[in-house]
């Protein structure tokens, strides 16, 4: 009897969930954590030269790792990226539920209030991605998931690209949900965040009207309608109608930006969501239409649309720091004027407007010599990205005691939402950790999430024990926030158990948060 294939030494393939031109999506079992995941086997075009194949494979891996950096409770999580058999494999959260597309097709259009509420969730997810300098490029009803547990999730960052990245080639995205400027990208004129907001407008329109705004009988005819014709006049949208028509403008400069769109959607959601700057909870009650929908609940995963339609994304690196000589990095490019600048890596001193950071300080300066010695011992510092990451490792220690810090800055949004995005980052990290708490397999065990009081505005951590035939590792992971700045910390030692590491982590987090605020 054939044994299930094991990918990356830990992901056991169980069943095929979908297949298309760009690869196959599998349901799989993560033997290290003891959970089911979705894993995408990316098939690269077969007619490439060896050099082009290697470049495209490397770019796909890099961009998947970038997408994994989007921490948000309304984004389907990417857990891991591995390479096996010269193919990239992308490991994602397995979401049980159905897509907005299937919900509308089986149960009919949604009310304007519910459509606007879902739009507000997706908008917040897009704002988090845009703050990282990342475009989604394929927002559509099929990529908006309504999970069985009530969450609203944006999936499929498989087509994602860096804002201002290299355009060209065949149109990306899905006919009828791809903005006009994304259909005609030229060097130096790449689509920006406004293109994602156009796609969100087409998605909300479809949810409330029951049909897409530009659908025609062929893909080319649909593209033509997007480029040259107005959308169908809304008939059911009510107060949403002017918002949708504004979003679907051909000229990106005439569309509302993220701040204006948030302000426009919020009043329409009054019947479904409480007042406040953003969604009060990342779980919505069951929509009334659920009861009339005839579709059977199925499993949805992140990159289904990429399998069917797309090519891999553009370039931006993001890796975990390891003890090496520090190297300078460049800041991410700035998106179009329709949204806030991307998360910035900069060597300039940190500054704050009232309650808000405007730049990231040098991470390796956020622990004094005395503080680093207290939590690590005699140490050396290292970083792969000196402007956003730092590692403090114990010198000449065969147990490899080390602490690693990565900083994330959410730039000013114009309406104070940058702090909300930072809060959502922390919520997303904690939600992922809580979903894995108590699980284990093949020598790995994760503990419960615990709060760390007195560290910035909020902080939490969790322990992970890893034991293999040749290695043992005890790690305390943590995340903390001060204003619109988020830090993720990994404190690790190559031993089976380190009882004092949790207390050392709490102390280090408090030092880091205090020193961040002192540099304001």
Automatic annotation (TrEMBL):
Residues 11-269 form the Protein kinase domain. PROSITE patterns: PROTEIN_KINASE_ATP, PROTEIN_KINASE_DOM, PROTEIN_KINASE_ST. The keyword ATP-binding applies. GO terms for molecular function: protein serine/threonine kinase activity. It is an enzyme of class 2 (transferase). The keyword Transferase applies. Its EC number is 2.7.11.1. Residues 317-356 have a biased composition (Low complexity). ATP binds at residue 40. Keywords: ATP-binding, Kinase, Nucleotide-binding, Serine/threonine-protein kinase, Transferase. Pfam families: Pkinase. Residues 314-357 are annotated as: Disordered. It comes from the Bacteria. InterPro entries: Kinase-like_dom_sf, Prot_kinase_dom, Protein_kinase_ATP_BS, Ser/Thr_kinase_AS. This is non-specific serine/threonine protein kinase.
């Amino acid at each position: 009897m054939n044994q299930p294939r094991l990918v990356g030494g830990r992901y056991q393939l169980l069943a095929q969930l979908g297949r298309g031109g760009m690869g196959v999506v599998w349901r799989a079992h993560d033997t290290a954590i003891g959970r089911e995941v979705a894993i995408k086997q990316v098939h690269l075009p077969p007619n490439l030269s060896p050099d082009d194949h290697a470049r495209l494979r490397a770019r796909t891996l890099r961009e998947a790792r970038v997408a994994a950096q989007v921490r948000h409770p309304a984004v389907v999580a990417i857990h891991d990226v591995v390479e096996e058999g010269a193919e990239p494999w992308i490991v994602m959260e397995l979401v049980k539920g159905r897509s907005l597309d299937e919900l509308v097709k089986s149960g009919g259009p949604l009310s304007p209030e519910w459509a606007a509420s879902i739009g507000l969730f997706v908008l917040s997810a897009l704002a988090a991605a845009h703050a990282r300098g990342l475009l989604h490029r394929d927002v559509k009803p099929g990529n908006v998931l309504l999970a069985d547990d009530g969450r609203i999730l944006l999936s499929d960052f498989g087509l994602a690209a860096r804002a201002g990245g290299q355009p060209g080639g065949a149109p990306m995205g899905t006919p009828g949900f791809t903005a006009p400027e994304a259909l005609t990208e030229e060097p130096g004129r790449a689509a920006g965040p406004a293109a994602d907001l156009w796609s969100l407008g087409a998605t909300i329109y479809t949810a409330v009207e029951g049909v897409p705004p530009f659908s025609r009988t062929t893909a080319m005819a649909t593209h033509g309608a997007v480029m040259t014709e107005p959308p169908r006049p809304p008939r059911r949208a009510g107060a949403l109608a002017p918002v949708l028509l504004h979003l679907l403008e051909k000229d990106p400069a005439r569309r509302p930006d993220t701040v204006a769109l948030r302000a426009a959607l919020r009043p329409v959601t009054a019947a479904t969501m409480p007042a406040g700057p953003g969604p009060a909870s990342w779980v919505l009650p069951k929509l009334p239409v659920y009861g009339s929908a005839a579709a059977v609940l199925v499993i949805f995963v992140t990159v289904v649309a990429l399998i069917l339609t797309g090519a891999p994304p553009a370039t931006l690196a993001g890796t975990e720091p390891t003890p090496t000589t520090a190297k300078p990095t460049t800041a991410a490019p700035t998106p179009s004027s329709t949204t806030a600048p991307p998360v910035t890596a900069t060597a300039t001193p940190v500054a704050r407007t009232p309650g808000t950071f405007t730049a990231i300080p040098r991470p390796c300066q956020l622990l004094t010599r005395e503080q680093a010695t207290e939590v690590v011992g005699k140490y050396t510092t290292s970083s792969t990205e000196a402007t956003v990451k730092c590692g403090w490792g114990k010198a000449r220690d065969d147990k490899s005691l080390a602490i690693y810090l990565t900083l994330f800055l959410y730039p000013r949004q114009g309406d104070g939402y940058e702090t909300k995005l930072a809060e959502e980052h922390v919520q997303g990290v904690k939600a992922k950790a809580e979903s894995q708490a108590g699980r284990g397999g093949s020598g790995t065990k994760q503990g419960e999430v615990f709060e760390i009081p007195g560290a910035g505005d909020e902080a939490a951590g969790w322990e992970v024990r890893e034991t293999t035939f040749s290695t043992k590792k005890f790690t305390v992971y943590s995340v903390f926030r001060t204003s619109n700045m988020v830090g993720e910390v990994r404190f690790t030692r190559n031993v089976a158990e380190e009882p004092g590491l949790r207390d050392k982590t709490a102390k280090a987090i408090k030092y880091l948060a205090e020193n961040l605020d002192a540099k304001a």
